[in-house]
Each structure stands twice: as C-alpha cells, then as structure tokens.
C-alpha cells in the first residue's frame, strides 16, 4: 500500500492560521515544567546513532469517537505522525538537547469507534544529518492525555507499541551531490521499492520485522531512565522537553514544474497525466517551476521493475563552465546539485517522497529503465514553509519596485521554516547576521514575531562559557563569529522597538548582552579600538581575494570596533528601562571613548574617508557606512562621504574602495536615512534592478557567479520600502508610538499598508500640481494616514513636523 499523504483541516483548532493544515493545537501553552508519564522508545537491536528509518505502530479500540484526544509527540531526529493512514503532522521543531521540542496534536477528528491505528515514521540520519540537527540517539515519544484503558503513551507497560526497521528508505552520501560546494543541509534519500514495506500502515500489517519497542537507553542499568522530562527538570536522558510554540509549517499543494526539455521527443511529464518510458531506455526530463520553491516532491510510478530514477534539484542551471546566467535560459545547461534516487519494483502506483523537503526551481529526472517499461503516473508537490501571511503592501508607479517586492517576499518566505535559514538549499542554518534582517521583515511585512522570538531564545541558549553567542544556532558543528554576537544585541534591540513584548522576553534576554560586551571589553585597547579577537570576525563578503575585517600590524581593526560601538549604543538603550541604568551610563561612556578613538586613528583627512585599519591602507564602503551610522564621521561630513560611496556597485573596487555586498547594503540604507539622504535610497537599489533581466525569482547570496540563489539577507529592500520610502517606523519601544517620515525620491505617489500590533497603518501620498524642476515632485504634497486603535505619533516631511492621532489624518504640505 503506497504511503497516503492527506491535507487535513480540523474544525477543532482553536485558531486558524494561514497554511495550518493538520491537527497541531494552537491552544494554551503547557507549563514549563510538567509531569511526564510517557517514556522514549526505539528498536531493540537497530543502531542508535547510524542513519536509520523506523516505523512505529499501535492499535487501540475506542467505544465511541472522542470529542478530544490530545497527544504530545517528539522524536530524535524527526517523526511524521499518522492516524488511520492519514497524515497528522511532523516534527519536532529543531533545538538542542537541553531544549528539545515536542508537538501537540488533537487526534479526535481522525479517530473512530472501534479499532484505530496510530503510526509514525521516525528517522535519524546520524553522521549524514544536517548541521542544524542535534541528536543523541534514535528514539520516539508519544504521550496521551487520556489515561486508563485509552492511554497509548509510549514507554508504559501494556501499551503494545511495535517497531520495525525500514530497509528500503536510506540516506545517500555526499558523493551523490553533483555540484561540489559547502553543503550543510541534509542528505539525499533513496527509496528501494523492492525492499520497502509498503504495507506498514495497513491495519493487518504482519511480518517478523515487527517487534516490541524498548527503551533507547541501552547504556543504563536503572529502570525509568527513558521517562520524558521537562527542560527545566533533571532527568536520566538527554532530551529536555519543551513545547514548540510555533504554528505548524504550511503543507499545501504546489506545482512541481512543467517539462521544458526532454531527451526523447514525445516523452514529457505532466503533473497528473501518465506517460510511458520504454524498456531499456535512458532519458532526461527537465522541469521548470519558473520560481523557486521549498516543497516535498511526490513522484508516483507503475511498473518499471529494474528501473532507476535520479531526481536532481537545482536553483538554476549551469553551463559547461559551471556558471549560471539568465535563470530562464535552458538550452544545453544542466541541473546540478542535491539528488534523490527511486528504484521501482514493478508494482502499481508506488510513490517516492523524501522525508525532508527539497528546494528547486529546476527538477531533472534521469530515468534508466530495465526490461520493463515504466509508467510515470504523476509528479506533484507539497509546498512547506513557515506560515507567514503577507499583511503589508506597497504600491508605486515604478513597476520595478513591485517586482523587487515580490522577489524579496518570496526569498524571505523560503528562508523561514521552523527556524530562519540563510539559504534553503545549501545550508538551512540560522545565522545571526541573516536572521536580524529576516526578523525585521517578519515584523514589518508579516506582522509576526513568533519565529523571531524562537531565534532570539536560540541564540541566547547558544552562549559559550566565555560569554559570546554562537554565530548560528541550532548547529551541531560549533561556529563562533564574535561580530555576530554584537549583531545579536542589535537584533534584541530591534525586537524591543518593534514588538509589544507582553511577556518580557527583551527584559529576560538583556542580561545576556552583558556577557557579550564583557568579552569584547577584554580586547579593547587604551585607544578605544579592538585588538584582533579570536575565531572568525566576519563582517561582509567582498571581492575574491579580499576579506573584511582586516587588521594592521598592531592587530587593531576599525571595522570590528565599529560594530562594537553600535552594540554598546543598543545595549545602553536596553539597559535603561529593562536592566541596570548605571551600566547603561557606563556603556555610553565606553561608546564615547571608542568613537573618539575611531575618529582619531581611522579618519583619513587626505581621502575624506574612514579607513578599515589605523594604518589607513584599506578603505571600504562597510567602514564608512558604519562610520556614518554611529556618528564617528562628523555630521557635517556624512553626506559628502556617502555620495562618494553610494554609487559603488557590489563586486567592484573603484579607487581601491571595497564594495558592500547585497547584505551590507542593508546598513547603507540605514546610513542614508541617518545622514538625511533617504530620498536618495531608491537611486541606491540599482544592484537589485540589474538582477531583474536575469530572471531571478529569489535574491542571490553575492554578486556574480553566486553559490546560493536564495539568500535571505539580500531581501531587505522589502523592509526598506516600508520603513524608508513609506517612512513607517516605531518612535518608542514596543511600537507604542509611530514616526512617519516618507522619502519618495523620484516617485510622485505611493500607497502602503503596514501591520502594526494594534491593526493596520495605511498611508497614501500624492504630489499634486505641475512638475517644476525647482520644486520636488510637485507644487503640493498630500498625505492621508490611517492609524489603528489608540496609536499616535508624528508625521515629518520637507523639514516640518505634524502630530498624528488615532484614526484618519490628512496633511497638505505646500512645496514652495
């Protein structure tokens, strides 16, 4: 029996979120500490730390259909849960062993009077697991709220859970990835249909492979060591359980792609129309979705015993020199990258679906048949990502801006799952530098802070004994980028400004900023500059053969010190209301000393620029962007400096000045605003306009022949459009008040909607009257502003300021 994948919409959900299609409960959260009566289980003899797929099953009888049947479920590494053959959901959301998530489901809608079957696939890819995945050993846990005869909790006597090893579903080695570059995501997968137990979800499934499940704690001699326990309790096993507070990931039908090339004319693959591949044939079918996706492909075939199908997923196609170009161009280009493999057994309607989602725009099927023809029944897909809603809008007469908005939002969505991800293809890791930008997009476009709160807690949990955070987390491979610990402080400050923070998360996390700044203080020289710090002090990707930050012969860096200065300022802001006001004063005094040292040692009067090092041999956009943003460069010189730099394109070095990447141009936008040049912001987005003719559907990591075609840190124009162009920003912590200061640049009109915690902010701007070269935009300017709830603030334009009240505000500004 083929695996049955259904989308279920449960009427019993207490809240309905976009894309929430299974039985995960969005009810009151569990307490941090609760008494667990379930225990972890596994296979009695299978390896615990090697790549492994297990199936679990349990039958039980109900006298009547229950109104509610709540279970809590977790696994190491992952599970997919089914009831009576229907998919309930999956998990657990990633964390570390001390903060191991469990999911909560109500199974009642799928239960029936009489005998019921609950099943789960559990897998652990061991040494092949993604870098973002922590693990101890393969195990499964399910706890039922129902007690007595209806209790099906694992690890209890009499619960009769059975388990089998699934030999037909295995992980592929890294040698099967056909484009060699840094790959931190999970492995490709293979289903060998001849070995696969297709009847494992049948109510009458039988066979010697099914054995009673046992405790996974084989190294223990005491009873009860497998008992579940909360993260804040001491237990005898490594999994400190806490509830996943995120909504379940979206799981919705999407296109797998349409055939754009076939090596055999007449043989194509449509989503639902069967096509036959002859015996003893070898063909390639290339499909194109037109836009990138993150989804579970589902390929169903019949017949074809002895065939092999290799699925290759690609963000873009490569030419003979392994270069990408116009993303729409097919020609003789190849799909290279992560691969899966499917070995049909000749039976009807066998379905391949990987246990983890894939990322692709182009999907290549390399099909080799044996002595039997193979029928390709269908190829469908299920889109998955964090269920963000696009609640903001931005409408302007420039069509490029609409396209940049669309691509930015798609990039942000595909890089957000149960954690943020730098790239959904290559790494799937939550880095601080990327995540700060992603969180801001979440607040401003999605009006949703739940994934950002997860990230802030994760980075706080990652703190080393020295006091700094890890650069990315969760990550089973430790990595430290100390400058990202500084950006973590900035990210916490962002959250404090943009979100109401009713439960005091910002206050809870503020003490952790102190250990970061104390660590950096150890490297602060008497002149205020930082000595070279350990680990990887990444600031930005620049041209090949160059790196930033750089250090002089005394091992001092202006660049690293600039990020330190920004973190001191933000930490002082946090400490005043949330922590220690005396410490805030000390931080500000340190910031003044550091700022003075930076100007004295790094300002080059001859170049009129801030240098990257005190020896003033290297100059960059990055140093001068931060020099403006943090007022190291005096106010009266900031605009002059920025005009020297703003036209520099990513990937170039005019006059020896290193250029900022797409990522660091986020800080360029902030610097333009800080220097009173935000009206020139739209002139600065040329690098994104230049990508449009190349038909990117998501934004790349770096200019040129980029590794990654979907990098969240390049999506910040969507945030800039709302906060700089439409000009909507918080004026006080928790977005309690608003400052609206639009900067339309060359635009004559603009409409925008912004999701504020109290409701929607709506703005509409219009220049009126004849255009005059001496008058910006027109002879007058009208702003119609609607503020939700009790929100009030100020409107600033053309050097003037007006108060804003809740409700409708109309402001007419003469331009002469």
Write up what this structure looks like:
With about 800 residues, the chain is an alpha+beta fold. The strands form eight sheets. Strands 9, 10, 14, 15, 16, 17, 18, 19, 20, 21 and 22 form an eleven-stranded mixed beta sheet that branches. The protein has a six-stranded antiparallel beta sheet with strand order 4-3-6-1-8-11, with no helix packed on it. A five-stranded mixed beta sheet has the order 7-2-5-13-12, with no helix packed on it. The relative contact order is 0.08. α2 (about 430-445) packs antiparallel against α3 (about 450-460), α4 packs antiparallel against α5 and α4 runs parallel beside α6. It contains twelve helices and 37 strands. It is about 20% helix and about 25% strand.
Beta-strand residue fraction: 25-35%
Overall body shape: globular
Helix content: 10-25%
Report low-confidence residues grouped into runs of 5 or more: 1-22
Count every beta strand, where a strand is a DSSP E run of 2 or more residues.
Answer: 37
Average pLDDT works out at 93
Distance between the termini: 77 Å
Number of helices: 12
The value of Rg in angstroms is 28 Å
Structural class: alpha+beta
Which sheet architecture does the biggest sheet show?
11 strands, mixed
């Amino acid at each position: 029996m083929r695996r049955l994948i259904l989308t279920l919409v449960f009427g019993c959900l207490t809240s309905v979120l976009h894309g929430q299609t299974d039985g995960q409960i969005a009810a009151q959260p569990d307490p941090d500490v609760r008494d667990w009566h379930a225990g972890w289980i596994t296979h009695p003899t299978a390896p615990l730390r090697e790549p492994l797929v297990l199936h679990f099953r349990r039958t039980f009888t109900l006298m009547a259909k229950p109104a509610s049947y709540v279970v809590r479920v977790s696994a190491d590494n992952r599970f997919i849960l089914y009831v009576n053959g229907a998919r309930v959901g999956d998990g657990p959301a990633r964390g570390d062993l001390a903060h191991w998530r469990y999911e909560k489901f109500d199974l009642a809608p799928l239960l029936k009077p009489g005998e019921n079957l609950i099943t789960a696939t559990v897998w652990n890819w061991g040494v092949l697991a993604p870098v973002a995945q922590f693990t101890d050993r393969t195990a499964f846990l399910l706890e039922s709220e129902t007690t007595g005869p209806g209790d099906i909790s694992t690890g209890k006597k009499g619960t009769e859970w059975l388990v089998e090893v699934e030999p037909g579903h295995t992980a592929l080695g890294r040698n099967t990835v056909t484009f060699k570059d840094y790959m931190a995501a999970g492995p490709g997968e293979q289903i060998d249909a001849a070995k696969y137990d297709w009847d494992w979800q049948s109510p009458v499934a039988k066979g010697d492979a099914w054995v009673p499940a046992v405790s996974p704690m084989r190294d223990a001699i005491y009873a009860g060591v497998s008992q579940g326990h909360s993260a804040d309790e001491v237990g005898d096993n490594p999994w400190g359980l806490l509830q996943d507070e995120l909504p379940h990931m979206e799981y919705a039908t999407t296109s797998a792609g349409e055939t754009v090339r076939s090596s055999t004319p007449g043989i194509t693959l449509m989503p639902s129309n069967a096509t036959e591949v002859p015996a003893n044939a070898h063909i390639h079918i290339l499909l194109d979705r037109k836009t990138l996706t993150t989804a579970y492909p589902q390929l169903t075939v019949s017949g074809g015993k002895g065939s092999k199908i290799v699925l290759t997923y690609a963000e873009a196609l490569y030419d003979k020199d392994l270069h990408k170009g116009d993303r729409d161009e097919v020609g003789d280009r190849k799909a290279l990258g992560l691969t899966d493999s499917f070995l049909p057994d000749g039976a009807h309607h066998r379905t391949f679906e990987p246990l983890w989602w894939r990322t692709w725009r182009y999907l290549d099927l390399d099909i080799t048949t044996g002595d039997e023809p193979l029928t390709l029944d269908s190829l469908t897909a299920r889109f998955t990502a964090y269920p963000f809603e696009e609640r903001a809008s931005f409408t302007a007469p420039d069509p490029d801006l609409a396209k940049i908005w669309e691509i930015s939002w798609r990039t942000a969505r595909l890089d957000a799952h149960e954690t943020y991800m730098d790239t959904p293809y290559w790494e799937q890791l939550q880095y601080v530098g990327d995540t700060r930008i992603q969180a801001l997009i979440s607040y401003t476009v999605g009006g949703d802070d739940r994934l950002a709160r997860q990230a802030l807690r994760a980075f706080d949990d990652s703190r080393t004994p020295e006091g700094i955070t890890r650069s990315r987390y969760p990550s089973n491979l430790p990595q430290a980028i100390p400058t990202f610990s500084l950006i973590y402080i900035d990210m916490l400050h962002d959250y404090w400004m943009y979100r109401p923070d009713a439960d005091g998360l910002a206050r809870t996390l503020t003490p952790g900023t102190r250990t970061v700044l104390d660590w950096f203080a150890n490297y602060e020289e008497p002149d205020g500059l930082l000595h070279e710090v350990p680990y990887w002090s990444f600031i930005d990707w620049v041209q090949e053969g160059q790196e930033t930050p750089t250090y002089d012969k005394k091992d001092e860096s202006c660049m690293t010190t600039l990020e330190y200065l920004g973190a001191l300022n933000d930490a002082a802001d946090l400490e005043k209301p949330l922590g220690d006001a005396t410490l805030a004063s000390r931080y500000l005094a340190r910031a003044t000393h550091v700022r003075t040292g930076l100007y004295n040692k790094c300002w080059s009067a001859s170049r009129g620029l801030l240098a990257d090092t005190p020896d003033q041999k290297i100059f960059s956009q990055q140093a001068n962007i931060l020099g403006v943003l943090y007022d190291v460069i005096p106010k009266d010189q900031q605009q002059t400096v920025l005009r020297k730099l703003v036209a520099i394109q990513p990937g170039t070095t005019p006059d020896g000045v290193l250029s900022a990447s797409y990522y660091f141009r986020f800080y360029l936008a902030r610097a333009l605003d800080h220097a009173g040049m935000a009206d020139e912001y739209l002139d600065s987005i040329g690098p994104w306009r230049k990508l449009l003719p190349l038909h990117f559907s998501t934004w790349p990591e770096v200019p040129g022949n980029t590794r990654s075609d979907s990098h969240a840190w390049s999506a910040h124009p969507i945030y800039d459009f709302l906060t700089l162009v439409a000009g909507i920003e918080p004026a006080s912590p928790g977005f309690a008040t608003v400052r609206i200061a639009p900067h339309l640049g060359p635009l004559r009109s603009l409409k925008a909607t912004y999701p504020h915690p109290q409701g929607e902010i709506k703005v509409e701007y219009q220049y009126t009257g004849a255009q005059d070269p001496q008058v910006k935009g027109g002879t007058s300017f009208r702003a119609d502003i609607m503020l939700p709830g009790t929100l009030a603030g100020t409107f600033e334009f053309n050097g003037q300021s007006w108060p804003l009240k809740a409700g409708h505000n109309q402001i007419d500004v003469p331009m002469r």
